[in-house]
Design goal:
Blueprint lengths: L12 E7 L3 H12 L6 E7 L6 H8 L4 E4 L5 H15 L4 E6 L2 E2 L4 H11 L3 E10 L16 H7 L3 H5 L3 H4 L9 E3 L6 E5 H7 L11 H11 L3 E12 L10 H17 L5 H19 L3 H5 L1 H10 L17
Parallel strand pairs: 1-2, 1-4, 2-3, 6-9
Antiparallel strand pairs: 4-8, 5-9, 6-8, 7-9
Helix pairs in contact: 1-2
Length: 323
Amino acid sequence: MTQDLTPGRTPLVVVVILNWNGWADSIPCVRSLLDSSYENIRIVVVDNGSTDGSVERIRGAFPDLTILETGTNLGFAAGNNRGIHYAMDNGAEYVLVLNNDTTVPQHAVRELIDFAERNPGAALIGPEISDAATGEFLDLPMLRPINVWSILFTKSPIQRVIRRTALYKRFFYRGRTPSEVYAIHGSAMLFRASTIREIGTFDEETFIYWEEFILAEKLRKAGLRTYVLPSTRIIHKGSSSIAKIGASRFLENMKSERYFFDNYLDLSIASRFAIDTVRFVGYIGRAVVQDDYRRRLPEFLRLLFEGRHPKGGRDDESAISTK
C-alpha cells in the first residue's frame, strides 16, 4: 500500500538519466518511469557523447522526451550536473538522479516523495537498491562517516574474505525502517532543490567513482541529513559487471579515491600508506594474470607515487559514465 501525499500537493520531480552508449538500458528505464503512479514527473536524458546512435534510438522511442546532448563524454559527475542544472532552471522541487540501467517500480517515486514531504529534515533520500542479476541488496547505505577501516574492509579485496561476517555488515544499514545514514548508493538519489542550492551539484573533478562519498561529506559538513527508505526498492542492473573490473576502471577509481582523500577526508600518513599498500598488492595481483593491467603498470605507479592525475580520458574504455 502506498502512502498518500498531502492533498493538493504534488511537487515537480525532474528525473535525470545519464546515457552513454546505453540506449538498450535507457529505454526500459524511461518506460518504467512513464508507468509511475506519481504524475508530476518530467524526465530528462543527458546523452554523454554517445557514438552508438543512442540519441536517435531514444528519441525514436519517446519523441516528446527532453534529451540534452553534451557532445562528449563528461563523466558521471559533470554529465549529471547538466541535467541537474536543467531541472533547477525548470522549476524542480525535487531532482531524482537515476542510473540508466535501473528500472523503477510503479509506486517508487510516489513513496520517495511522500517520505520527503513528511520529513523536511531529509536533504537527500535513497531507496533500497536491488541487484538485477542476484536479487541481493547492494552494500550501501553506509552507516557512519568513512574512515581508513571502512575503506580497507569494504572497498578493497579484503571485503571478499570478510563479506559474510558481522565485521563487514556493521558498516552498513541493514534495517527495514527508514533511517538516517552516512551515504546512499549513487544509482538512485533524490535531492531536494533546496539541498542543491545549499551544497551545489556533483564535484566535477572526478570522472567516475566516489561521488557518493564526496556528496556525503558535503552534506555532513553542511549539517544536512541523508536517509534511506528500505521499503522502496529500485532494481539496478549494472553492478554485476563491476566484479570484472578492468585496468581502466581500477585506475579511474584510484584517481577519484585520491582526489577524495586530498580534498574531503583528513587521513593520517599511516592510513594513506595502508590504503596505498592494499592498492599496490591488488593491482600487482591482477597484473600477473591480465594483459591490460601489465600494459598500464607504469601509469599505475606514477599515480601511486606522484599523486593524483587529471581526470580520465573520454575516448578509451575508461570513458564510462554510469555506476
